[in-house]
Amino acid sequence: QSVLTQPPSASGTPGQRVTISCSGSSSNIGSKTVNWYQNIPGTAPKLLIYSNNQRPSGVPDRFSGSKSGTSASLAISGLQSEDEADYYCAAWDDSLNGVVFGGGTKLTVL
Amino acid sequence: EVQLVESGGGLVQPGGSLRLSCAASGFTFSSYWMSWVRQAPGKGLEWVASINQDGSEKYYVDSVKGRFTISRDNAKNSLYLQMNSLRAEDTAVYYCATGGATVAQFDYWGQGTLVTVSS
């Protein structure tokens, strides 16, 4: 059971917009910044969003992040086949004194 | 170009020990938090441990406390993870990661090294 809760799966057709939620508590998302990672099986994870809503250079602006209270969301617009991957949220947790990840959401592009 | 290269993984029996290394290049190693993150086969990402720039602060996930030790050598641009009393549930790909303004922000990742704990 992960400290941060994500839906196990999400799906969409090419061109659609999908959102992935990440629910936490006051000791993590509620008081710390959220980061999102994309993981294609067999490869190293990649930073997608940092500090709730910032994109590293090279990440398309189709990817966006937001945070409200103890929840965060990742939105992907103009869905493309290459977006098919696992997505993870992460944040520092003050109660656990450590980094916590969500359980991951498997995105399928239909 | 930032590079993180892990080594030291392999097959080890339950109760055994292993030392992972991560060789860093392309950035000022001594200026960044460094971390280990693992991924068990078919499972999600799990943070294992982090160490601050001078090694004075170390944090661990509860499941490895007392068994794993994170350390670094800034003169050698290297990060280490000493793993003792290994269990089957420690079987995973171990990634070295770093680069963010906060401990939970991992801008850069290594390619990972596989640790298999089995008799």
Determine the N-to-C terminus distance of chain A: 28 Å
What integer is the average pLDDT of chain A?
96
Spans where pLDDT lies below 50 across 5 or more residues of chain A: none
Number of strands of chain A: 9
Q: How many strand units of chain B?
A: 11
Please work out how many helical segments of chain B DSSP would assign.
Answer: 0
Which structural class should the secondary elements of chain B be placed in?
mainly beta
Largest pleated sheet of chain A = 6 strands, mixed
Radius of gyration of chain B over alpha carbons?
13 Å
Radius of gyration of chain A: 13 Å
Helix content of chain A: under 10%
Mean pLDDT of chain B: 96
Write the layout of secondary structure elements.
The complex is a heterodimer of chains A (110) and B (119).
Chain A: E1 9-12, E2 18-23, E3 35-39, E4 46-49, E5 63-68, E6 71-76, E7 85-93, E8 98-101, E9 105-109
Parallel strand pairs in A: 1-9
Antiparallel strand pairs in A: 2-6, 3-4, 3-7, 5-6, 7-8, 7-9
Chain B: E1 3-7, E2 10-12, E3 18-25, E4 34-39, E5 45-51, E6 58-60, E7 68-73, E8 78-83, E9 92-99, E10 106-109, E11 113-117
Parallel strand pairs in B: 2-11
Antiparallel strand pairs in B: 1-3, 3-8, 4-5, 4-9, 5-6, 7-8, 9-10, 9-11
